[in-house]
Design brief:
8 helices; five-stranded parallel β-sheet; 41% helix; 229 residues; Arc Repressor Mutant, subunit A; four-stranded antiparallel β-sheet; single chain; Rossmann fold
């Protein structure tokens, strides 16, 4: 089942597109600002984004610029007839197609299917590599093995998943809430302190000096990240 993110500040449009696409068997994620869309793409496996240009907080062009820094997921812009300049700009910075409102549902579905087919045929939609590393830490996700300076390290399932999440995003900082949401796939509901406990355990297993970590570092006012000092 392919996952499609619909991003438009007009909720009626989002609901209408959702009906069309769900009928075709797609799983739908919804956002109403560019910021919300970026958060979903970061947290979920998305195969296509339908992105409105004119939105509050962060418009579609700004969201496209940020999205292309870390993802090549296909994007179809939803535009008004008066937004010709924005259409060109959107295509220039990485949009794959655009469709003008009001749109024909049959045309929308055809464009969606075309972009997803192209994305998957080119191999862009395949899962990420099975191996990750930073400094002396290596992970073989196929074998579920972690080594530190070529020596095996025994991790719990949660510790492993936290480490994998960090290794997939080297140098990026995440709050305890974001870590919990991505690793536990649940709303933290005050459980952010649980993350700190597991980070401490990971440091004890992966750092020669846990009090002065080389890899798993605290980011003041933000949370944690992994990088090699």
């Amino acid at each position: 089942m392919y996952h499609i993110l619909i991003c438009d500040d007009e909720k009626d449009i989002v609901s209408a597109i959702e009906i069309y696409l769900k009928a075709e068997g797609y799983k739908i994620f919804k956002a109403f600002t560019g910021k919300e869309a970026l958060a979903i793409v970061r947290q979920e496996e998305i195969h296509l984004v339908l992105m409105d240009i004119m939105m509050p907080e962060m418009d579609g062009i700004q969201a496209m610029t940020e999205l292309r820094k870390h993802s090549n997921v296909p994007v179809i812009l939803l535009t008004a007839k008066s937004e010709d300049t924005d259409k060109v700009l959107g295509l220039t910075i990485g949009a794959d197609d655009y469709i003008t409102k009001p749109f024909n549902p049959v045309e929308l579905l055809a464009r969606v299917k075309s972009q997803i087919r192209r994305y998957m045929q080119l191999g862009s939609g395949q899962t990420q590599t099975d191996s990750y590393s930073i400094g002396g830490i290596s992970m073989d996700d196929r074998l579920k093995e972690v080594t530190l300076d070529q020596e095996p390290v025994s991790l719990t399932k949660i510790e492993y998943n936290i480490l994998k999440f960090f290794l997939q995003h080297p140098g990026e900082s995440f709050s305890p809430k974001e870590i919990y949401q991505n690793v536990w796939n649940d709303n933290p509901l005050g459980n952010e302190r649980t993350v700190a406990v597991h980070i401490r355990h990971l440091r004890e297993k992966l750092e020669y000096d846990p009090a002065n970590p080389r890899y798993l570092k605290a980011v003041w006012g933000r949370g944690y990240k992994i990088e090699e000092r």
